[in-house]
Design goal:
The protein is α/β, with parallel strands linked by helices. The protein folds into two domains: 3-171, 3-Layer(aba) Sandwich (Rossmann fold), CATH 3.40.50.300; 189-321, GMP Synthetase, Chain A, domain 3 (2-Layer Sandwich), CATH 3.30.300. 32% of the residues lie in helices and 21% in strands. It has a six-stranded mixed beta sheet with strand order 2-3-1-4-5-6, sandwiched between helices. Helix 6 runs antiparallel to helix 8 (271-288). The protein is globular, with a radius of gyration of 21 Å. It starts with 6 loop residues before the first strand and ends in a 9-residue tail after the last helix. The model has no long low-confidence stretch (mean pLDDT 87).
């Protein structure tokens, strides 16, 4: 391989909350790494994934949604997203065709102009509007920024996502790969497990609870499983694991800010916590390919989103992301 025959570079994915950034990235790399939900601000940290083929290597940086911060966690999330703009070779700005409110988009456009990087506008969720309306929405955004290209897609339905890859490849600089071809993400299994638990909590709980939820992995240990053992819920195993001889023991805390939210998370007779635990266990088993014994607890940490020390403990520390 020579430098002139290969392209490589870093691509930042930015946009307002809940526009489908993580869903798009998961499709682009061909597997689920970033968690998704229908609730805004699902992504809180920068998540790096790697796409490699015979002609290029693309390092995607998924970012939190850029929004008006209401607490220190929100300020942290915005700073993470804006810091990425200075670190990448190319930027994907995701928008919705029916979500042109004005000031929020103008703010992002100003930040892109300061970054002075090539920008591709990805107009997501095109399946939610009349296709005849797309040219009008595209024109609104063209007035905001001189995009290198505009690509309409539906990330959820995986429509036109290949066109995004081709647009990125065409604008990557020449260079050698940064990672070996087997690397997919910089996230550890422990980090991914924590995010899977948070995703299942987001999907199960009411709208007023998720923004104040964090996950703390207290322990995650791998051990050899006894032959012929039953599943962790006491029933016979109903499916085969890729690694049938391994068992992961995981203990994690669901952190919330209010005692009233603790009751909602636990549910009547522990029903909600059990539901979250079952879904999270299955998700982690898919990731590890092995059986998982997951124990969840709920802890109250008042106003943790405005407490820098607690934020660092829970993994929200910008210094550690640079």
């Amino acid at each position: 391989m020579t430098k002139n025959s290969f392209k490589s570079g870093f691509v930042g994915i930015v946009g307002r909350p809940n526009v489908g950034k993580s869903t798009l990235m998961n499709h682009l790399i061909g597997q689920k790494i970033a968690i998704t939900s229908g609730k805004p601000q699902t992504t809180r940290n920068r998540i790096q994934t790697v796409y490699t083929d015979e002609s290029c290597q693309i390092i995607f940086l998924d970012t939190p949604g850029i929004h008006r911060a209401k607490n220190r966690l929100g300020e942290y999330m915005d700073e993470v997203a804006l810091t990425v703009l200075s670190e990448v070779d190319l930027i994907l700005w995701l928008v919705e065709p029916s979500d042109f409110s004005g000031e929020g988009e103008k703010y992002i456009a100003r930040q892109l102009k300061l970054a002075r990087k090539p920008v591709i506008l990805v107009m997501n969720k095109i399946d939610t509007v009349d296709r005849k309306e797309l040219p009008r929405f595209m024109e609104l955004y063209r007035k905001l920024y001189p995009f290198d290209e505009i690509v309409p897609v539906s990330a959820l339905r995986n429509v036109n996502t290949d066109n995004v890859l081709e647009a990125v490849k065409a604008r990557l600089p020449e260079g050698y790969p940064f990672y070996d071809e087997d690397t997919v993400t910089d996230q550890t299994m422990r980090q991914i497990a924590g995010e899977i638990i948070r995703e299942k909590a987001l999907r199960c709980l009411n709208d007023e609870v998720p923004h104040g939820i964090a996950v703390e992995i207290c322990s995650m240990k791998e051990r050899q499983k006894k032959k012929g053992s039953a599943s962790v819920d006491g029933s016979a195993e109903d499916h085969k694991y890729e690694d049938p001889d391994t068992l992961w023991d995981i203990e994690a805390n669901l952190i919330t800010e209010k005692d009233s939210h603790k009751g909602i998370i636990i549910g009547r007779g522990g029903s909600m916590l059990k539901k979250i635990g079952i879904q999270a266990r299955r998700g982690i088993e898919e990731m590890t390919g092995a059986q998982v014994n997951l124990k969840l607890f709920v802890k109250v940490r008042p106003d943790w989103r405005d407490n820098p020390q607690l934020m660092r403990t829970l993994g929200y520390d910008l210094k550690n992301r640079r």
